[in-house]
Amino acid sequence: MTYCVGMRLNAGLVAIADTRITSGNETTTAKKIFLNVGEDHALFLMTSGLRSVRDKALTYFKEVLHDEGHHFDKMYKAVNAFGAQLRKVSREDRESLEESGLAFNLHTIVGGQLREDAEPQLFLLYPEGNWIEIGPGTPFVIIGNSGYGKPILNRTIRYDTPISTALKAGFLSFDSTRVSANDVGFPIDVVIYQRDSFQLVEKRYNEEDLKEVSSQWGAYLSEALDRIPGEWMEEVLIKAEECTKVL
After folding, report:
1. Which of the four CATH numbers 3.90.226.10, 1.20.140.150, 3.60.20.10, 3.40.720.10 does domain 3-208 have?
2. Helix (H, G, I), strand (E, B), or coil: what is residue 236?
């Protein structure tokens, strides 16, 4: 499984991707985020799904970027180009994959800004190659194992959230997933894009780098739990105690 999150903010974009690859009983590490930066464009791409589909579609897409990338002046055109390559891989490999008992599966987050984009853009592509745009109303998207980390982002991320706060929340969202699912883990790759900069800043974090932050987060949760008022529990707790006395 995978954990990748992209956040679209007024100030720019934040992307976080884990690197754990699980195949049967084997666990390895592989990069799940691809970057492409030029004089007047910057985009990243994160994937969750079959590695073979991802690698083939990305190889085709790199060729398109090399041959035709200068024609892409808005993000949706680049997204359409990747979707076309994904459909090409589907035509080539879907039948044989399904005959082997594997579903053709690849979800992709694409974010960035090209020269004619008024602001950074973020998209979610489905395995069929169609896509939706992630807007200010719900300014983040997760692919992979989303159940454990999404509640944190629901409570903290808004379009006007600063990049620093979004990065912090994004890590805590990943950390909540990591401690709950054994198929998501360190290292994680972080990418930050500042609006109108056409530059991507990338950083890899190992578990040791963020061990203290994770520990502090656990301690703060326990402290917050202790501080929540308990008057609403008194009636049921008293009844439970009375039942114990009767026994």
Report:
1. 3.60.20.10
2. helix
